[in-house]
Amino acid sequence: MVKLIYHGCINLSKLPNLCEAGTELIKFLEPEYQELEDPPCCGSLLFHTDEEGARKNCNEVYDWLKKNNVTELTTICAGCYNYFVTFYPQYIPEFDVKINHISQFLSKPEYMQMLDLKYPGEKKIKITYHDPCHMKNARIPIFEEPRVILSNIKNVDLMALEWERELSTCCGAGAGVYSSFKEVSNFTTADIFRQVKKSRAKILITPCSFCYVSFKRLESEKNPRFKILKLEEFINKLKKGEVIE
Amino acid sequence: MTSGKELYENNKEKLKKLLDETSEEYQFADFWGNLASVKKHREFDEDTKEYVDKYVDKLRPMREELVNNLEKYTEQAMKSIEKTGAKVYLAKTNEQAQKLFLQELGDERTLYKSKSADAKEMGILDACKKNGIEVIETDLGDVLVQMFEYELPSYQLAPGVHFHPSQIANKIKEKYNVDVEPNGPAIVSFFRKTHRPKILNANISLTSANAVAADDGSIVLVENEGNISLLTRLPPKHIVICGISKIVPTVYDALLQVNMQERWNTLIGSYISFIRGPSSTNDVYGQKVIGMYGAQEVAIILVDDWRTKAVKENSFLKEFLHCISCKACNYVCTASRAVGNIYASKMGLGACGIIKDYIHNGIESAVKNGLFLCTSCENCKNFCPVQVDLPKIMRELKKIAVSKNLAPPPLKSYLQNITTKKNPFK
Predict the structure, then answer these.
(1) Which domain holds residue B301?
(2) Is B52 an 8 Å CB contact of chain A?
């Protein structure tokens, strides 16, 4: 019986710092969690583009999970979460691996207590949270858990974005659009930045790696007056007592 | 067939126009990106919210009943319409619909029409152009589009909404040599003066239908401007053209459908018309005489084209038949907000426009018009009053496009990497 940390290929290939943060947190809270070598891609884009490819990939991933005795996995990727909980059961009715997004994992009361999170700055800090499409459209949507985590951090004010939860603005990167047409994300991310500015938050937290990449690209162009952090990155910094400037 | 690379480059070229502030594409996207949004769409007033909450759950079952029994309700609608004294046709294809329409038009060379997405989709406007028939638009949005000779797709509920008042005033000066103040009331007043008398003298009008009741043959139309009321009453002949998916089982369902079309968009139309055949009177010694003040002739062309085929084959397009054409999906679409009418076809903005483009012009055209700009954010489904699964239909279209090698090269490379290296980014 293996509990797996499943980072997702975007994080493994492009965002190793997020993988480290996720692993540190998960292992701190549940040391029996493991990382396995060369995990296969969940196949996200195939679900949009290739019926047979998606089916084949689903079965291969399921076989790989079974071969490694994985009974539960926690992922830091909102996309992997969505595809595992929404699409896999459509292709594999007997799919029985328990899937958690890291926000579901961290929001357990006992883990919140173990982490005892506090922002270490002298003054309270305002943060805000963006709901990604992958989490609002998943078969089991996630709205509350990240808010439970963030609103329980001492010395932090969680500000609502103008458009949040079901109404939240898409980052424009989904379904492989980011690979081909960044023009969509140029517009929508700028709109999300406008909302963050309006919220007066100093940090924008996202639980989605695709939104994160999209936000970070525009961050380097627009130089907004707020930080962009991935959920596990933010939590891990607080756990270490880092002040985020 | 054009390659995915060429179509991708074509898409990228179009997107470059968004960098040019003088381009028509920029102008539309700039306006649309600010007008359309999920939040604004959902800011219902209390009355609207009450209505929507009370009735929205009735829509999907009603549409499912219709779609699952489309042939039965089409047959019933035909019989009911016939009883009203109107002529009724079932066109198997769009081409047949065009022929029937021209036949009904006879020698008349001028057509007065209301806004009709169906007429455009069924090629009626192209048939008019080909046959030298002058089309006079009466919906102000379409009047503006016609005045500007605007060729690009626009928002079908208000097709000229992106023109700035000063642009309109300048165009009026250029076309009619009349000075009009660049504001809404002055512009509306100008067109009321110029266009209303024309409608009063029309011989034949064309409208679509927001719903057609199978049980009593009512053609139901919703509007604000009053042009439909005039067009359906004043000209001696009124032609209706619409797809059979506009049929609903009962007249009560028709009212539900048209009310939801408006209320879901936070609109309340000034007029709802229920038309059951030509005008008539029994006032002369109890004898029924057709043709009193209203239309003397009403001809209704119901168009099947792809619809019963989609039901019979249970294809992915069957889901699209549940759509009530409220256009709410236009308003909440991520890609539409971002790139305006570059992600659109002549048949509409966003996913609906792309799907209709696929149905009538094929997959290559759908890709050319931006199929791969869809981010699968699912807003279109989440904010649809009938929960039409447009994202699923779009996924099916993308699958067809990929199988025909029409995907954008960067996406294609990701897909290959997933299959061969188990990681798109390696």
Answers:
(1) 46-138+203-308
(2) no
